[in-house]
Amino acid sequence: MRRALVLAALLLFGGVAAASQTTLTGAEGHPRFRLPLRLHVASFGDAGLDEAAARAVDDWNALAREVLATSVFATVVRAQDAQIVVRVEPPAASGLMGVTEVESDGGIIRLPVRIAIVAPQPRGQVNRDLVLYQVVAHELGHALGLAHAADPRSLMCCASGQVNLDDPATREAYLAARRRPDVRSVSAQLTEHYRRIWGQR
Ligand SMILES: [Zn+2]
Questions:
Q1: Residue 79 CB contacts under 8 Å (≥ 6 apart), including other chains
Q2: Of 54, 64, 73, 141, which has the maximum CB count within 10 A?
Q3: Domains contained in the chain, number
Q4: pLDDT digits (tens, 9 = 90+) for 112-156
Q5: Averaged over 1-20, what is the pLDDT?
Q6: Ligand 1 centroid to residue 96 C-alpha, Å
Q7: CB 158 within 8 A of CB 152
């Protein structure tokens, strides 16, 4: 059994892509028959934030229907019925905004997958709803088994040590993507990930 604590690198808006830690290898995923996964997202106690989280789920489904021919998430009302459980946590001293715990056996992700999200404060030019959208969408990507990407424009950015934010062009691409987070930036990664995983079984 492998256990991976996946921490979102969302100390980002200050421009520091630190604290990204993942031991996802890219070999972890869900069997096709599991999809769509039953998902419960706790309320953030704010209509705008709840709407942003729901939009992240909808956008994953729209992308997955296109590239995997199935939705990946089906929202359920009760957390105990869910295979992916998103809970809300108070701000942590670490500054991390999202944590996904992924355990796997032989590459098959164990259920339930638990995601903890900290409701964001406004940061810079990016509003709270947008920050939350990004954190939830990023962590849902980990719940699907996606590791960090080396592309600064990707929602799953950034793979540790593979993105040089001291380079001005890279940094600008990275910040632009944070201002306009887009689940579609993961299209190729999602396609390739499940082509590989489903192709082996
Ligand atoms: Zn992450």
A1: 40, 42, 85, 87
A2: 141
A3: 1
A4: 999 999 888 765 556 889 989 999 999 999 999 999 999 999 999
A5: 43
A6: 10
A7: yes
Distance 63 CA to ligand 1 centre (A): 19
Range of the domain at 37: 2-199
Mean pLDDT over all residues of the chain?
Answer: 86
Give residue for tokens 């998103």: 86
Whole-number Å distance, alpha carbon 9 to ligand 1 midpoint, is: 6
pTM comes to 0.89
Instruction: With H, G, I as helix, E, B as strand and everything else as coil, classify residue 7.
Output: strand
Please, are residues 102 and 14 in contact by the beta-carbon 8 Å criterion? no
Q: Are 3 and 103 in contact (CB under 8 A)?
A: yes
DSSP structural state of residue 148 = -
Phi, psi of 187 (to 5 degrees): -50, -50
Q: How far is the CA of 158 from the centre of ligand 1 (A)?
A: 7
Query: Tokens standing for 101?
Result: 């715990």
CA of 200 to the centre of ligand 1 (A): 25
Pairing of strands 98-105, 73-75: unpaired
d(CA 137, CA 143): 10
Q: Do 179 and 155 touch, CB atoms closer than 8 A? A: no
